């Protein structure tokens, strides 16, 4: 759970800072980017439902692990952007950007074999070597990310958008 919250806070920080510089970027779009950061972790549904069950339901071959890739994020973002009443392209771009922030962050963590997952699928099966900066279960990551997000929130509220 700490990793999921970390991804959301990282997206919040990125998109809030972007909001300072882009005039049309409202809190609505910050939230859209944060939702995008959750998309790759929809692959965790595989803990409860097997691929065979999904294949039977959809009638096509399916691997839930593909959701945690650039291709999976693009498909989920396309579906998610249809929910927005207007500005479908903007919603799509921000959902994908949030998902990419998630994948890039995951690309920095420690993996047992020293290489990240094939997150560039369907464009490439390449698994880049990781710097191994953190373990996903380390609570200190959440403390650091949470502190940075809190600072950004305070600056946003007190200095940038004096409310």
From TrEMBL:
Pfam families from the UniProt entry: YdjM
TM regions (residue ranges): 6-22, 29-50, 62-85, 92-112, 132-155
Molecular function as annotated in GO: hydrolase activity
InterPro entries for this protein: YdjM-like
Keywords assigned: Hydrolase, Membrane, Transmembrane, Transmembrane helix
Domain of life: Archaea
Keyword match Transmembrane helix: yes
Keyword Transmembrane helix: yes
Protein name according to UniProt: Metal-dependent hydrolase
Organism, as annotated: Halohasta litorea
Lineage, opening ranks: Archaea, Methanobacteriati, Methanobacteriota, Stenosarchaea group, Halobacteria
């Amino acid at each position: 759970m700490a990793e999921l919250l970390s991804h959301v806070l990282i997206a919040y920080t990125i998109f809030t800072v972007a909001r300072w510089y882009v005039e049309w970027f409202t809190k609505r779009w910050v939230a859209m980017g944060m939702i995008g950061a959750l998309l790759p972790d929809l692959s965790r549904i595989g803990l409860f439902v097997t691929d065979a069950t999904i294949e039977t339901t959809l009638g096509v071959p399916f691997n839930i692990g593909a959701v945690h890739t650039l291709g999976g994020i693009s498909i989920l973002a396309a579906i998610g952007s249809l929910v927005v009443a207007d500005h479908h392209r903007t919603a799509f771009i921000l959902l994908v950007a949030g998902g990419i922030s998630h994948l890039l962050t995951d690309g920095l963590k420690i993996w047992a074999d020293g290489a990240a997952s094939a997150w560039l699928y369907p464009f490439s099966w390449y698994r880049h070597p990781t710097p191994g900066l953190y373990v996903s279960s380390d609570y200190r990551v959440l403390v650091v990310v949470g502190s940075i997000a809190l600072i950004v929130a305070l600056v946003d509220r007190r200095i940038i958008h004096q409310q």
